[in-house]
Write a structure and sequence with these properties.
18 helices; MFS transporter; MFS_dom; single chain; Growth Hormone, Chain: A; transmembrane helix; transmembrane; mainly alpha; about 375 residues; cell membrane; globular
């Protein structure tokens, strides 16, 4: 239990960094005299960095003990946050965020591989749901830290706070995790990246995560611009409070793992897609109550799909957990980066309705995965 708690804290603090500037993107646009697409790179640059570094970290997770990986990752994340806090130019902020993204997999991909190797199969779905809950708490905490806990005019202090939290969580993990873990000293297993990519059953799950996260990240990334304008005209603090709907994922993710255990991954995926699609319609409405309800549904649907996909992936693996999870996260974050970039252009030229329309199209990817999984192919 102490190990799971340490892992939970580590993953949570890692995810705090990803979305830290998201609630204050309009403020960053003013601070650096830039537009919404450029300042959105402070989020998408992290996601791109994570996507690029996941494969190397996946290899390390299959070959090395997790302790030195966590040490390097935690220190690099904290230092990157301090550079962000001091940045006086937008491109320096974006570059520091990209470097942070390169080291986040040390506390995400590698930890998933560690759990997959060290836990019995019957507990894996539920614990993976708990892991997803940590990502939820971290995502919500980062948004609250960036836009609410610290006054918006002092957003730089949020990066300093995140650096301190990361160092504390890293120290706790190093004091708690065993000095050697199962599989750390084993010879490299036979599951190569090429093999894992050519298995259709695994590739479908990778694409499912990518499509679902593209929808989720796009919706939440441009939400501040939508709510800051007509007809809402919300302040930064009010917009940040809406990210509290994220708390739904803390409870939904473990529940999705139990549902997948009992009924299978496919029903969980299809249920999540249905809820997510309906909720996107609600965020089109010009009333705040509908937007809040829609955001709650988007969180419910997305985290159901994500938890079911992560659990289904790791239940299929007998070896190569580090590589397979690295590939999943690679697809996942490339999906998020692509979604943010494409919907940003759609929003700039055609407005919020274009963002929602593109998200509906992206939902066809996890829908197809769920249908095929249900058919047992």
């Amino acid at each position: 239990m102490r190990i799971q708690s340490a892992v939970f804290a580590l993953v949570t603090t890692a995810f705090v960094h990803i979305y830290l500037p998201q609630p204050v993107l309009p403020l960053l646009a003013q601070t650096f005299d830039s537009d919404m697409v450029m300042v959105s790179f402070t989020v998408s640059a992290v996601i791109l960095g994570m996507a690029l570094s996941n494969l190397p970290f996946g290899l390390l997770a299959d070959r090395r003990s997790i302790r030195p990986i966590i040490t390097v990752g935690g220190v690099a994340l904290a230092l990157g946050a301090l550079v962000c806090a001091a940045a006086q130019h937008l491109w320096l902020l974006i570059a520091a965020r990209f470097l942070q993204g390169l080291f986040i997999p040390a506390a995400t991909t590698c930890v998933v591989a560690y759990l997959a190797k060290n836990l019995p199969l019957e507990r894996l779905n539920v614990v993976m749901g708990t892991y997803v809950s940590a990502t939820v708490l971290g995502g919500m905490g980062g948004r609250l830290l960036g836009g609410w806990i610290h006054p918006p005019l002092h957003w730089r202090y949020a990066f300093v706070s995140a650096a301190v939290l990361t160092l504390l969580a890293t120290a706790w993990a190093l004091c708690t995790l065993p000095r050697s873990d199962i599989g750390a000293n084993k010879a490299p297993d036979a599951a190569r990246f090429r093999v894992l990519l050519t298995q259709r059953s695994l590739l479908r799950i990778y694409l499912c995560g990518a499509g679902a996260f593209a929808v989720f990240s796009s919706t939440f990334n441009y939400l501040p611009f939508r709510l800051a304008g007509a007809p809402f005209h919300l302040t930064t603090e009010q917009i940040t409070l809406l990210y509290l709907v994220y708390v739904v994922g803390i409870f939904i993710a473990p529940l999705a793992g139990r549902i997948a255990n009992r009924f299978g991954a496919a029903p969980a995926m299809l249920g999540g897609v249905t809820v997510l699609a309906a909720s996107l319609a609600l965020v089109l409405a010009p009333t705040l109550a509908c937007v809040v309800l829609g955001l709650t549904g988007i969180c419910t649907g997305f985290f159901t799909i994500h938890a079911a996909a992560v659990g289904a992936l790791n239940r299929r693996l007998s070896s190569g957990q580090g590589r397979a999870n690295a590939l999943y996260v690679l697809f996942y974050y490339i999906g998020g980066w692509s979604g943010i970039t494409l919907t940003g252009l759609a929003y700039k030229f055609s407005g919020w309705a274009a963002v929602v329309g593109l998200c509906w199209l992206l939902l066809l990817i996890p829908l197809r995965t769920g249908i095929i999984e249900k058919g047992g192919r």
